[in-house]
Amino acid sequence: MHVLVVTVVHNPSDARIRYRQIRALLEAGHQVTYLAPFERFGQPLPQDEGIENLTGFSISRAEGRKRLGALREARAAVAMHAPGKDIVLMHDPELVLAVARLKDLPPVVWDVHEDTAATMTLKPWLPKPARPAGVRLAKFIERYAEQHYHLILADDGYRELFEHEHPVVRNTTYVPEQVPEPGDERVVYVGHLTRARGTEEMIEVGRLLKGKVRVELIGDADDQMKPLVQQAHDEGSVVWHGFMPNKQALELVQGSLAGLSLRHDEANYRNSWATKVIEYMAHGVPWVSTPTPPAPELAEKFEAGIVTPFDDPKAAADAILKLRDDAELRVTMARRGHDAALTDYNWRVDQKAFVEQLEAWAR
């Protein structure tokens, strides 16, 4: 099977796209052509790194209010590269309409990562008066996609967005068999740095813990948060590593005191699981999280982390100090979390269903 994978928004090294789904396809013996904004993110093309059966082509990124040019380019690139492929796998709602009515396409799959309508309230580039129209457009995109494409859902919570049933491929993670014990010097966050994901709260946690526990942030910051994160880094309140490929980022998680997930109470987050929490468990550290799913459930079921209130950096800082000062607690939480991830949230299990589903849909 030869799969055309397309994103016009995500970093080419996005964990779900590059390091889970594409890797799973390659391990199953399939070929992948990957259209993504390599140049925009300063990422090398996979063929230049000698990766077998994976060929990349750089396209422009759709960002901010200037998106139409990038979407036209993506449409042309799909029209060029799709013929002869067995299936197209796209990862952005923007692409649903961008590739609409293209002729001679193989079966097209939209991998639904988020509640598209709910995210409209989180777009800093979208003026507030335009957001109701954005929500209506998102609902239209979902209806159109359901009528014309196959859908894969990244979370059970997205089922209610659609009229019909669609397969769910959970956003789980690779789980190492062995991990080191958690340390007591630093906490980490891995992911995109936005206001809704708790960046301001994590910066404040860094200020509260300065000289006690180091707060390390790993990921790109959006335009709104970038000056704040840079200032906090410059003043020594946090260590900002910037974007790192998923493998290297998760290696930094290992041996830390805890992982952070301080997401806000937003509609999009109520329907989806914070994969970050699962990743922290998989790499052998407890977590400190606001009460967005799955944190409350995992705290009750596995006692693998601590839930703190929304918009309360002091409570998060206190939880971190509690874990720092109680080695037995943090090691026990880490062990419980890792065991749970190994058995219940392991991409090695979920990847089989993902590959088999694409194989069933391919022409």
Give a description of the structure:
This protein is an alpha/beta fold and 363 residues long. The chain contains 14 helices and twelve strands. Helix 1 packs across helix 14 and helix 10 packs across helix 13. It has two domains: 2-172 and 347-361, Glycogen Phosphorylase B (Rossmann fold); 186-344, Glycogen Phosphorylase B (Rossmann fold, 3-Layer(aba) Sandwich), CATH 3.40.50. The protein has helices at 15-27, 68-81, 93-98, 116-119, 131-148, 199-208, 226-234, 246-253, 267-270, 275-282, 295-302, 313-325, 327-344, 347-361; strands spanning 2-6, 31-36, 54-58, 87-90, 108-112, 150-153, 186-190, 214-218, 239-242, 258-261, 287-289, 305-307. This is Glycosyl transferase. Its EC number is 2.4.-.-. InterPro entries: Glyco_trans_1. Residues 181-337 form the Glycosyl transferase family domain. GO terms for molecular function: glycosyltransferase activity.
Named at the architecture level, the CATH assignment of the largest domain is 3-Layer(aba) Sandwich
**Reading side by side through the largest sheet, how are the strands ordered?**
3-2-1-4-5-6
What proportion of the residues is helical, as a percent range? 40-55%
Number of strands: 12
Q: Largest sheet, if any?
A: 6 strands, parallel
Overall 3D shape: globular
Low-confidence stretches: none
DSSP strand (E) fraction?
5-15%
Distance between the termini: 9 Å
The average pLDDT score comes to: 93
Structure class: alpha/beta
Give the domain tally: 2
- Could you tell me the radius of gyration in angstroms? 20 Å
What's the CATH C level of the largest domain?
Alpha Beta
What's the CATH superfamily of the largest domain, by name? Glycogen Phosphorylase B
**Topology as a string of helices (H) and strands (E):** EHEEHEHEHHEEHEHEHEHHEHEHHH
Compute the number of helices: 14
CATH topology term of the largest domain: Rossmann fold
InterPro entries: Glyco_trans_1 (IPR001296)
Domain Glycosyl transferase family: 181-337
Protein name: Glycosyl transferase
GO molecular function: glycosyltransferase activity
